[in-house]
Write a structure and sequence with these properties.
The chain has 546 residues and is mainly alpha-helical. Helix content is 82%, strand content 0%.
């Protein structure tokens, strides 16, 4: 038997299958990007909802490995906790069964066989791609072409291995895997780990089944092994991530291993004791899809009540470090870039975190000119350095998002985020300037007059209110709070003009210290500009909202 003539078309078919699955998934993902973002925003600590979300996302991107890698990224970025991650991980295993049902439809939907329709789908997709100009049209063409390539690939693989029906040695391999559960599980795990996609691995098994090569018992054990093999991608992706992200990867591994052990025991008892003759029959593609679905849904149902225990066990295994995290560390993960809509939302969350740090800096600035507290001066300067590092890291990440396949509205949102980052960073700079004013007053032993102190406090309070509304407007995309910012900024402008005029009168009549008077005027300028930058943030919110 010429094995080269089998291997080459099989590998080519596998390549078409994986590529078709990827471009179909990309088209679906682009089409559902905003919805995925909305779903993420709606995600709660309810694990059941997390299961549904995990199943949906995996059904869209056609890979439980990819979903789990995203989850690791979410946990690493701090936008998902371990409880939420557990739910999504359980759901991912259910969502991955969709590909198997699509492939097996050549058996249960022969009247509309995707295998027969594949060439037509590819041609139709190409026509749509060449004639369409809108991005949404391109996404539709990707879905259609990917669908066609997926089935051309599976058909090519099945045709390539059909001569192996005559190979007694090859058939004996599968018989051996069926009689030895451990070997069957290992085989499924190894193949899935190599190609890093359980959907693709199931597709390979279905192509072999279509050629009449796979006994029922061997298929069951291989399917169970595939669930373990799919964990490799997540484990690898967690290398270099923080402890919680590694814990999420371990949770995925534990969940799949426990599920495999439980169902392996059931399968061994069934094939060895209850119904030995059942294992020797040849399995069909539809039966593979059924077994795959029952296994994954059954595992989720069985382990859902004890999922908290799995989380605790994973924490112990990883010895999760609960020490304080460096605030300057940018909590954004490149893994999330696979889903631009969600990556954009995570960037917004990180901008809000940076804005919250600056809010704390502003609060310190409220009193530092009057108390001249040395520790607060140092804290303000350190926080400004933290903000600088965050601003640089977030900017780099947002630029990466802008290079992805995103729509015009998302590009506008990115421009708005970059402008907001700049405004927040400038406000942090002005806070540092205020701390330097405190140092100047301390060095020159100068004090504000009682009325000057009251006036500055009034100005600072208005500017802080303006900034707080701005950050809340940005986080909530709130037009109402954005309008409050504009009101406060106008109030700050009027106040600055009045206070400057009154202060100049006091200087002219020697009612205040000259050194303190100069600092007073400089402080007014800083505070007014803080208010201006807050207004800039609000205007960006209004632009995006419209």
């Amino acid at each position: 038997m010429n094995y080269v003539s089998i291997i080459i078309p099989f590998v080519g078919g596998l390549g078409m299958f994986i590529y078709g699955m990827q471009i179909m998934a990309q088209g679906l993902e682009n089409a559902a990007g905003s919805k995925m973002k909305t779903l993420l925003e709606a995600l709660t600590k309810n694990k059941f909802f997390g299961v549904l979300l995990g199943a949906f996302i995996t059904a869209v991107i056609q890979s439980s490995s990819a979903t789990t890698v995203m989850v690791v990224g979410f946990v690493n970025a701090g936008i998902m906790n371990l409880t939420q991650a557990m739910g999504v991980i359980m759901g991912a295993n259910i969502g991955t069964t969709v590909t198997g049902w699509l492939v097996s439809s050549v058996e249960w939907a022969k009247f509309l066989s995707p295998g027969n329709l594949a060439p037509i789908a590819i041609m139709l997709g190409v026509i749509v791609m060449l004639t369409g100009t809108r991005r949404s049209t391109k996404d539709v063409s990707s879905i259609i072409i990917g669908f066609g390539l997926l089935f051309v690939g599976i058909t090519t693989m099945s045709s390539a291995v059909s001569p192996l029906q005559e190979s007694e040695g090859f058939r004996n391999i599968f018989v051996t895997l069926g009689h030895n559960p451990f070997l069957g599980i290992i085989a499924g795990a190894v193949v899935t780990a190599i190609i890093q996609s359980s959907s693709a691995s199931v597709g390979i098994l279905q192509s072999l089944a279509a050629a009449g090569l796979v006994p029922f018992n061997a298929a069951v054990y291989i399917i169970m092994g595939q669930n373990i093999g799919t964990c490799v991608t997540a484990i690898m992706s967690s290398i270099g991530a923080k402890k919680t992200a590694k814990t999420a990867a371990v949770m995925h591994l534990l969940f799949n291993i426990i599920g495999t052990v439980l169902f392996s025991v059931v399968a061994i008892v069934f094939f060895k004791v209850i119904y030995p003759n059942a294992g020797g029959g040849i399995i069909t593609q539809t039966e593979i899809s059924t077994v795959h679905t029952i296994f994954n849904i059954g595992t989720t149902i069985l382990l859902f009540p004890v999922s908290d225990w799995i989380i605790k066990l994973a924490k112990k295994m990883e010895k999760e470090d609960d020490r304080e995290v460096d605030e300057s560390r940018v909590l954004l993960d490149d893994r999330i870039l696979e889903t631009p809509g969600i990556a954009l939302q995570s960037a917004v969350s990180e901008v809000v975190r940076m804005g919250t740090i600056v809010k704390g800096t502003l609060e310190k600035s409220r009193n530092v000119m009057f108390t001249k507290d040395y520790q607060e001066i140092l804290d303000i300067k350190e926080e400004e350095n933290v903000v600088d590092r965050l601003c640089s890291g977030i900017t780099d990440y947002v630029i990466k998002i802008s290079a992805l396949s995103i729509n015009e509205k998302e590009h506008q949102h990115i421009a708005s985020i970059l402008q907001t980052l700049s405004d927040i960073e400038r406000i942090s700079d002005y806070c540092e300037n205020i701390s330097e004013f405190a140092e100047t007053l301390q060095e020159r032993k100068a004090e504000f007059s009682e009325i000057g102190t009251a006036e500055l406090r009034e100005m600072i309070n208005v500017c802080i209110d303006s900034y707080v509304y701005a950050i809340e407007a940005f986080e909530e995309n709130s037009k109402e709070k954005a309008m409050k910012v504009i009101e406060k900024e106008s109030q700050a402008d009027d106040l600055e003009i009045r206070l400057r005029s009154e202060h100049m009168k006091r200087l002219a009549t020697n009612q205040c210290n000259t050194d303190a008077g100069i600092v007073y005027l400089d402080a007014l300028v800083c505070l007014e500009r803080i208010s201006d930058h807050s207004r800039n943030i609000a205007e960006e919110v209004l632009t995006v909202a419209n």
